[in-house]
Design brief:
Distance between the termini: 21 Å
Number of domains: 1
CATH superfamily: Alpha/Beta hydrolase fold, catalytic domain
Structural class: alpha/beta
Largest sheet: 5 strands, parallel
Helix content: 25-40%
Order of helices and strands: HHEHEHHEHEEEHEHH
CATH topology: Rossmann fold
Strand order of the largest sheet: 2-1-3-4-7
Shape: globular
Mean pLDDT: 84
CATH class: Alpha Beta
Strand content: 5-15%
C-alpha cells in the first residue's frame, strides 16, 4: 500500500522537507535520545501534533517551543502522556494567535468572503498543519507512521477544517483528540460549538461528528475523542442554542471568557496530570498509537 498524495501535497513535501530536523531538535521529547532524523528513523516514532487555542502559542507572538506561554493545554497533555508511556514525541504547530475576544464567526457565516482575525488564523493553521504532516511523512512507508492530532479550542477547529480539506491524508493519522471544539455537536441537546452554531466553514456535518465523514475502516481509518466540559461556551455543552438569540448569548459568553469569571473553557488543565480531561485524552492517544 502506498500513500495517496495530491499534487499540492507533493509541493508541500518539497517545500517543507527541511522542517523535520528542526521539529525534532526543538520539539519537547517524551524521552531523550529517541530520534535520529537524518536516516528517516523518525518514521517509526509515535508523534502528536499539538494545536493551540486563540491567545496561545507557538505563533509569531510566542515562537519558541520552550516558551512558557505555549498552550498550557497541549503542554499538560504532553505531561500526561509522558506519565503513561514517555514514547510519544510532542510537536507544536505554529500559526497566529488571536485575541480571545475576536470571535468573527458571524462574519464568516454571513459572508464567506469576509475573513476576520480568527478565521484567517484558522486558515493559516490548516496550512501549517498540512506542512507539518507532509514533512513528517516524506520518505516514510505507510505502516511505519504513528501520528496523532491534538487540538484545543481554535486548534480543534483547525483540525476539523484540515480533515475536511485533506482526505487524502487520513490514512496517515492514527488518532485525533479535540478539547473545547467550536465544531462540537451533541444530540440529544442539541448542544453546538460556536463555529457550528453560526455555520462557519470547517465543521463536519452534524450527523457525522466528530468524524469528517461516516466512520468505517475504509472511510475514516482513525478514531477521534472529543471532550466538552459543562457550560463551556466555545463547544456549547449545556447551552440551549436552538435560536439565534441563544446563539448570541453563547457567543457573548465566549467573548467574555476569563479565568476571573471562572469560565469553564479555561479549566481543561485543572487537576493532576494523572486525571481529568487531558489525561483521558492522553491515554486514548497512547492506546491508539502504541496499542
Amino acid at each position: 500500500m502506498t500513500l495517496r498524495m495530491t499534487r499540492s501535497v507533493f509541493l508541500a513535501l518539497a517545500l517543507t522537507a527541511l522542517l523535520i530536523p528542526a521539529l525534532v531538535a526543538t520539539g519537547p521529547r517524551a524521552s531523550a535520545g529517541q530520534i535520529r532524523p537524518a536516516d528517516h528513523t523518525h518514521c517509526r516514532v509515535p508523534v502528536f501534533f499539538g494545536l493551540h487555542g486563540m491567545s496561545e502559542g507557538p505563533s509569531k507572538t510566542y515562537p519558541s517551543a520552550q516558551d512558557p506561554r505555549l498552550s498550557p493545554e497541549i503542554r499538560l497533555f504532553d505531561a500526561a502522556q509522558n506519565l503513561i508511556s514517555g514514547a510519544v514525541l510532542a510537536v507544536y504547530v505554529q500559526y497566529p494567535d488571536v485575541h480571545p475576544g475576536k470571535w468573527d464567526v458571524l462574519d464568516a457565516a454571513h459572508n464567506p468572503t469576509m475573513h476576520g482575525p480568527l478565521t484567517a488564523a484558522v486558515n493559516a493553521g490548516v496550512k501549517a498543519l498540512q506542512d507539518h504532516v507532509a514533512a513528517w511523512v516524506k520518505g516514510c512507508r505507510l505502516g511505519q507512521l504513528k501520528i496523532a492530532l491534538v487540538g484545543y479550542s481554535m486548534g480543534a477547529w483547525v483540525i476539523n477544517k484540515w480533515l475536511k480539506e485533506h482526505p487524502e491524508e487520513w490514512i496517515v493519522i492514527g488518532a485525533v483528540v479535540l478539547y473545547g471544539d467550536p465544531c462540537y455537536w451533541y444530540k440529544p441537546g442539541p448542544f453546538k460549538g460556536l463555529a457550528r452554531a453560526f455555520h462557519a466553514a470547517g465543521c463536519s456535518p452534524a450527523k457525522d461528528y466528530p468524524y469528517p465523514a461516516p466512520s468505517g475502516p475504509l472511510v475514516v481509518p482513525f478514531k477521534i475523542k472529543t471532550q466538552c466540559l459543562v457550560l463551556d461556551p466555545v463547544c456549547g455543552w449545556g447551552y440551549d442554542n436552538a435560536t439565534l438569540k441563544e446563539n448570541l448569548a453563547q457567543l457573548k459568553a465566549a467573548e467574555n471568557c476569563t479565568k476571573k469569571n471562572r469560565c469553564t473553557h479555561l479549566t481543561y488543565t485543572n487537576g493532576a496530570p494523572q486525571s481529568g480531561a487531558l489525561a483521558e485524552g492522553a491515554r486514548f492517544v497512547v492506546r491508539q498509537l502504541l496499542g
